[in-house]
Design goal:
Distance between the termini: 27 Å
Number of strands: 6
Shape: globular
Largest sheet: 3 strands, parallel
Number of helices: 5
Structural class: alpha/beta
Strand order of the largest sheet: 2-1-6
Radius of gyration: 17 Å
């Protein structure tokens, strides 16, 4: 699935959703969409730092544990865990738990979409 990440005010989101609802009411089949929106460009830029984008690309290539992800991007595990938390809260990655035989569970990081399209207006 493709996801669109961008800037959209509450009013713009409301208009877009209302337009989709009207199409559905008319019986028009519309494709599902995944959107991740921020109200201000500063919020999007604070979330999508170069290091977090690097993590997102790595998770998109291959779902992996936080430790594996940290090793693959040559960063401290704690810093990666913190950045993954921000990306997860924004909906850009998903987290799941996998049994690690003899060692409990490990958290797997997977990109929230196969492709992301970034849109913005300033």
């Amino acid at each position: 699935m493709k996801a669109t990440v961008g800037i959209e005010t509450f009013e713009e989101m409301q208009r877009r959703k209302l337009a989709r609802a009207r199409l559905l009411d008319k019986g028009v089949r519309i494709e599902p969409e995944k959107r991740i929106t921020f109200e201000r460009p500063e919020e999007m830029l604070a979330c999508l730092t170069p290091r977090r984008l690097h993590l997102l690309r790595a998770a998109r290539r291959k779902p992996q544990s936080v430790s594996e992800l940290a090793a693959s991007v040559a960063r401290n595990r704690t810093a990666v865990q913190r950045d993954i938390g921000v990306l997860n809260q924004a909906g850009l990655v998903t987290l799941s738990k996998r049994t690690n035989p003899g060692h409990g569970q490990v958290q797997i990081v997977k990109a929230g979409a196969a492709r992301f399209t970034l849109t913005t207006k300033i």
